[in-house]
Amino acid sequence: MIRKLTTLSLKHTTLALLLTGSLAAASLPTGMAQAAGEAVYISSASYFIISQAALSSSSLQFAVSLHNGDQNAIDFNQYGVRVTDTSGHSFTAKLSEKKSASVLPGQDTSFRFYANLAEGESADQLKIDVFRWDAGQADFMKHLGQLPVSSAIGEGQVTVPEEIINLRTLDSTLANDASLAFQLGQSVRVSENGKWYLYTQVSAKNLGSSSVKLPAALQFRLVDANGLKYASTYANGSSTTFLPSESDTLTLKTPISKQMAMSGTSLEFYYLNQSEDVTLGNMSLNASLQTTALNTKQVYSGQQDGEQMTVQASTSQYSTQADGVHVQTVVTLSNDGEASAAIPSFIATYQVGDSGTALSAADNTARSAFLAPKETTTFYFNAILPSGTDPNAAQLVLWEKTSGTTGAGNGGGTSSAGNTNSTTSTNSASGDTTSTTAGTNETSDSTTVSTGSGTTGQMPVAVFLLKGASEAKNGFTTAASYSIGNKLTLTDNSIVNKNVDVSLVELHAHENDDLGYKTAIAKYKITNNGSNTIALPELQNELLDSNGNSYTGTRQSSVTTQLTPGSSYVVSYSYLLPNRKTADDEAFALNIYDDKSVSEGKVSLGTYQVALQKEDEGDTIDLYPFSLKVNDESISWLYSGGSYSYQLNLDLDITHEDQVIIDSNFSTIEFDMVDSLGRIVGTQTSSLVGTGKLTSGKQKIVVTGLKNEQVDSGVVVNMYEVINTPNGTAKRLIKQFH
Question: What is the pLDDT of residues 203-218, one digit of tens each?
Answer without folding.
Answer: 999 988 899 999 999 9
